[in-house]
Amino acid sequence: MTFVPNRSTLSLVNVISAVKRMVVGRRLSNTQMGETLLPKRLALPVFASDALSSVAYAPDEILITLSLAGMAGFLFSWEIGLAVAVVVAVVVASYRQTVHAYPSGGGDYEVARENLGSNAGLTVASALMVDYVLTVAVSVSAGVINAKAMAPFLAGYEAWTAVGVIVFLTLVNLRGTRDSGAAFAIPTYVFMVSMLSMLAIGLFRIFAMGQNLQSETADLIVVRPDGAQEIAGWALVAILARAFSSGCAALTGVEAISNGVPSFKPPKSRNAATVLAMLGALAITMLVGIILLANLTKVHLIDELTGTHYVDQDGNTIHSAATTVTGQLARVVFMDWFEPGFYIMVTATMLILFLAANTAFNGFPSLASILAKDGYLPRQLHTRGDRLAYSNGIVMLSLGAIVLVLAFNASVTALIQLYVVGVFISFTLGQMGMVRHWSTKLGTENDPMERRRIVRSRLINFVGAVLTGVVLVVVLVSKFTHGAYLAVVLMALIFVVMLAISKHYSAVERELALTPDSDRALPSRVRGVILVQRVNLPTSKAIAFARATRPTTLTAVTVAVDDDEVDQVLDEWEAEDFGIPLKVIASPYREITGPFIRYVSQLRTENPRDVVSVYIPEYVVGHWWEQLLHNQTALLIRTRLHFMQSVMVTSVPYQLRSSGRRKDQTKRVSEARVRR
Asked: Most exposed residue of 46, 65, 190, 391, measured as fewest CB within 10 angstroms of its CB?
């Protein structure tokens, strides 16, 4: 089916455009870029929601993994929580150096590319792209799991609920960074206030008031899949390492600020560093507070997928997992003291988990834009949409997340195994690149004060590189066989695809580049060919236009599909006396496209230095259903001719009466809009 612009099509485009304006908002010009920049109060919920939301599920994953060691595993939860907190502090301090040194928004990709080479940069980029997609899938899936605490009817529909949330987030982000930040700021701040309040009230009731707060799972004994209640030795070490790697999910989202520096209001680097510090302080406080309060209230979780189960005081076996850590803590802290606090906490947690994906919706499109600019991704990803957001990148991210959610049925425990690997690859290579950056700068700097600052910055990034490298090894070893290998395979695939795209663009550039010996000679002759199917007004218009272009020769061609029709065309042609010859091409198999293409090809073969200009009459109709009835042969011929060298194709439109009525309707609608 051909697609020729007509009034019906234009009307449909106008309707789509109106719906788009209603959903996305009015278009913004390049001069309004400043209106989209974020102050710190909006940048915090936009870029920190992912890392803060990790606090809502990282403790869950720590305790779920520790359940594989039985009751003995929970004794180590606070050590693992502190270890994760230390990593968060070091990574935040390291990235504060990055946002000052590389404020352009390339983040770890730019750092690795400039200091370690293009392959290192692509490795970081592929790792971050996978991590961003997983961030959306994991965060939204975790939000759905929390939502089931208040809406049990979602059971069995988790995946499609998550898809609906992703679509909603996509539409909001298509409206631009500032709009999405304003929309998501209040839920993020409500989560921060409610979480800190819950921790403060819970610890106050335990330590200051001496109350014995116990969670709903405090009296349940966790039994391993093999029936044992405890485990020791190297098996325990392996479980602790895996629990630590799962807890390191709390670090996801930290790198998004380094990719989003251009979205901050000036001074960009300073504001980004301030938001990073605020993020680090909040994440560490919440993570350590939750782990501490969970220990004091004896929260126990199990992993249903591995067969771990509860045994109550009566000896009954319970295989169904309890609610999340946050849900249990909110219940024990608020339900007998301030019941609305429980619902506020659960609702805020659910919302922050959904909104955590918003960080990825800001980081992924920015990174994709830089990669597209460098020629590693399709160039359409580099351009901004109507709202000055990278719309194509936003859509690409949402599609990838939807595929993962449906593939893993919105299971956080399954998705989390693929998580963290990518972000620690980028952490490690980014910090190594920063060490190289400072070392290079130190070799050219002579000012003593500046040298001391560079040495201090290099030390911070060196510690960060060593620590994140160790964590990366732990994550790979402990999670590789549990699903992390899929993330590694996906990263490798993206790496290869980006290299292939880059090679293609480079090859095309070389092929199209002008050189001193480029053939700039004019064609010897221009041979005009008019496709004639009937002798009518469109054909007459095509002949008139073709003659106006003054080709060297001009021939009309018709294909003999039906003898009676050919005779009629010949009689009408002689009667009109157009002044140009009409050539009849035989078609023994009753087709038009093949014989006409062969005729044009023969002209090219006989005269290699000539250019053949083909003129095809086409109807412009006013209704979509009319389009199905016309121009099909023209589409096939035009498509085939585009692949032939030195053949130019010109469509000569003829407006039918229905297109004129559509034009009048469009004009009246436009005038009404202007009056409004």
From this structure: 190
What is the rounded end-to-end Cα distance, in angstroms, of the chain?
38
Residues 342, 344, 345: CA angle, nearest 5 degrees: 65
Query: What is the predicted pLDDT for the residue at 347?
Result: 86
309-311 and 317-318 strand pairing = antiparallel
AA identity, residue 62: I
Locate tokens 């592929």: which residue? 126
Tokens of 448: 């003593």
DSSP state of 193: H
Residue 27 has pLDDT above 70, yes or no: no
Our CA angle for 642, 647, 651, nearest 5°, is 70
The pair of three-digit structure tokens given for residue 575, joined into one six-digit string: 């009667």
The amino acid present at 270, given as its one-letter code, is R
Contact yes or no for 612/529 (Cβ under 8 A) = yes
The Cα-based distances of 603 to 227, 555, 560, 598, 644 in angstroms read: 84, 12, 19, 9, 12
Cα separation, 3 vs 621, whole angstroms? 11
Residue labelled with tokens 């700068």: 441
CB 325 within 8 A of CB 60: yes
- Is residue 350 within 8 Å of 140, Cβ to Cβ? no
Half-sphere exposure of 357 (CA within 13 A, CB side): 33
**DSSP code for 530:** E
Helix or strand or coil: residue 521?
coil
DSSP category for residue 612: E
- CA dist 631 to 330, 336, 384, Å? 67, 75, 35
The model's pLDDT over 334-350, given as tens digits with 9 standing for 90+, comes to: 988 888 898 898 888 88
Strands 611-620 and 647-655: parallel
Give alpha helix (H) positions in 513-618. Answer: 537-548, 563-576, 593-606
Distance, in Å, from the CA atom of 284 to the CA atom of 294, rounded to the nearest integer, reads: 15
Q: Six-digit token pair at 205?
A: 């009731």
Helix ranges (H only) for 148-176 are: 158-173
Residue with the two structure tokens 């014995």: 212
What count of Cα atoms within 13 Å lies in the side-chain half-sphere of residue 71? 13
Contact yes or no for 162/144 (Cβ under 8 A): yes
Report which DSSP code applies to 213: -
Cα(239)–Cα(74) distance, rounded to whole angstroms?
11
Question: How do beta strands 611-620 and 526-531 pair?
Answer: parallel
Structure tokens at 605: 């073969």
User: Which residue ranges form the domains of the chain, and what is each CATH number?
Assistant: 36-502 (1.20.1740.10), 526-675 (3.40.50)
- What is the Cα–Cα distance from 615 to 58, expressed in whole angstroms? 66
Report the alpha-carbon distance of residue 249 to residue 54 in Å, rounded: 6
Residue 33 has pLDDT above 60, yes or no: no
Count of CB atoms within 10 A of residue 643's CB? 8
- Print the SS3 string covering 394-423: HHHHHHHHHHHHHHCCCCHHHHCCCCCHHH
Spatial distance between the Cα atoms of 111 and 100, rounded to a whole number of angstroms: 12
Ordered strands of the 221-223 beta sheet = 221-223, 309-311, 317-318
pLDDT at 179 over 60: no
- pLDDT (tens digit per residue) in 123-152: 999 998 998 898 888 888 878 877 776 677
